[in-house]
UniProtKB/TrEMBL annotation:
This is Glutamate-1-semialdehyde 2,1-aminomutase. Gene3D superfamilies: Aspartate Aminotransferase, domain 1, Type I PLP-dependent aspartate aminotransferase-like (Major domain). The keyword GTP-binding does not apply. The gene is hemL. The modification N6-(pyridoxal phosphate)lysine is found at residue 264. InterPro entries: 4pyrrol_synth_GluAld_NH2Trfase (IPR004639), Aminotrans_3 (IPR005814), Aminotrans_3_PPA_site (IPR049704), PyrdxlP-dep_Trfase (IPR015424), PyrdxlP-dep_Trfase_major (IPR015421), PyrdxlP-dep_Trfase_small (IPR015422). Its cofactor is pyridoxal 5'-phosphate. Its EC number is 5.4.3.8. It comes from Dyella ginsengisoli. It is found in: Cytoplasm.
Length: 427
């Protein structure tokens, strides 16, 4: 069965033919391919076509697809059973690993997705402070919990429904939104409503409105604001954790949040999330405290084995330096290609995460990101896809590098980009 036939079947059976919106290619047009196999930096579709993959399952595959160490760890775990419903040793190792690598995390709770992690973290923030309001940033995505689908990024932004129908107004009213990278706006909001704010949640590097880096001192400024008003600072490191640096964005930028959420990499491709932080806060979570949160499959032994294997790999000396230099090679190369073709273009990058923008400006805000030439992006995306390079199918998603991407892969990508840009420019 080819890609088109599968998509036709899928569309009859699943909303948009997919189980997660951005996969449907709705914003870039055309039809998605169906992957049958993945290895290293590559995906192969059901028709046997190979793609250099810059999404890496939206983040988890930082060591490349189907890494032998991860596969073998999973195979070993599977032999002992898929799920126990009791504590298992791998959960303890996972908690030890996370708390050792990320100093702000004194205790952690495993969940099954990034969405669960962020929903649980704000429940804890509300429970611990006795306050109701949450602050988030326009264009940031924290999963699909009701409180977060207000001016959200990622698919919500891509499809023009940043605030979803089905989110009760009473719920949305408790979510205050701010422009990213504007400290004065945050100060003004806290001056007005600071005593009602339970917590402020932020992607310390925004990866769901393309990739936007925090301005110098911005995260520190938010830390100070939260302290001054008794609100909790929550870093959503679902994307950035173990990717922009071993200790995540909080290590890279030197800011210590009260709570942090994780996902993606810590599951190594299995459905995993986690939230953690200050001991005095985490001890308020059930059963040690009254704030309820639970999960049948949380801490699953197979998922823990996959995540631990990846966390082992990213601790190799120089792992993140190499990843960052590969990312630089790609971004600088694309910039040179675009400059050579006379196409207005800019990039952002930190660690193994990057953004590509069809604008001459250096993008630092949501408004700048949404003002870029998305039609040009869509043509470029398809030009790259046709040449076997898979970029995120939306102008509002970050790109992800893995340690499996070779210099040759990057050179091939740049060659494809030269042709695709030439085509996109004249289209
Ligand atoms: N937070 C951030 C920053 C994310 O990027 C995502 C997903 N891309 C989530 C939360 C939600 O994670 P999940 O899709 O695993 O529910």
């Amino acid at each position: 069965m080819n890609n088109h036939e599968l998509f036709q079947r899928a569309r009859q059976l699943m909303p948009g033919g997919v189980n997660s919106p951005v996969r449907a290619f709705k914003s870039v047009g055309g039809e998605p391919f169906f992957t049958s196999r993945a290895d290293g930096a590559y995906l192969w579709d059901v028709e046997g076509k190979r793609y250099i993959d810059y999404i890496g399952s939206w983040g988890p595959m930082i060591a490349g697809h189907n890494h032998p160490a991860v596969r073998e760890a999973v195979e070993r775990a599977v032999r002992n059973g898929l799920s126990f419903g009791t504590p298992c040793p791998a959960e303890v190792t996972m908690a030890e690993t996370i708390t050792r690598l990320v100093p702000s995390i004194e205790m952690v709770r495993m969940v099954n997705s990034g969405t669960e992690a962020t929903m649980s973290a704000i429940r804890l923030a509300r429970g611990a402070t006795g306050r109701s309001k949450i602050v988030k940033f326009e264009g940031c995505y924290h999963g699909h919990g009701d409180s977060f689908l207000v001016k959200a990024g990622s698919g919500a932004l891509t499809f023009g429904v940043p605030t979803s129908p089905g989110v009760p107004k009473q719920n949305a009213d408790l979510t205050l939104t701010l422009p990213y990278n504007d400290l004065d706006a945050a100060k003004a909001l806290f001056a007005e409503q600071g005593e009602q704010i339970a917590g402020l949640i932020i992607e310390p590097v925004a990866g769901n409105m393309n990739c936007i880096l925090p301005r110098e001192g911005y995260l520190q400024g938010l830390r100070e604001l939260c302290d001054a008003h008794g609100a909790l600072l929550i870093f959503d490191e679902v994307m950035t954790g173990f990717r922009v640096a071993l200790g995540g964005a909080q290590a890279h930028y030197g800011v210590r949040p009260d709570l942090t959420t994780f996902g993606k990499i810590i599951g190594g491709g299995m459905p995993v999330g986690a939230y953690g932080g200050r001991r005095d806060l985490m001890e308020q979570v059930a059963p040690s405290g009254p704030i309820y949160q639970a999960g049948t499959l949380s801490g699953n032994p197979v998922a823990m084995a996959a995540g631990l294997a990846v966390l082992e790999l990213v601790q190799a000396p120089g792992f993140h330096d190499t990843l960052a230099s590969r990312t630089r090679l790609l971004c600088d190369g694309l910039q040179a290609v675009a400059d050579g073709e006379g196409v207005p273009f800019s990039t952002t990058r930190v660690g193994g995460m990057f953004g590509l923008f069809f604008t001459a400006e250096q993008v630092e805000t949501f408004d700048q990101a949404t003002a870029t030439d998305t039609a040009m992006f869509n043509r470029f995306f398809h030009g790259m896809l046709a040449r076997g390079v898979y970029l995120a199918p939306s102008a509002f998603e970050a790109g992800f590098m893995s340690s499996a991407h070779s210099d040759q892969d990057i050179a091939d990508t740049l060659q494809a980009a030269r042709e695709a840009l030439r085509e996109a420019r004249t289209a």
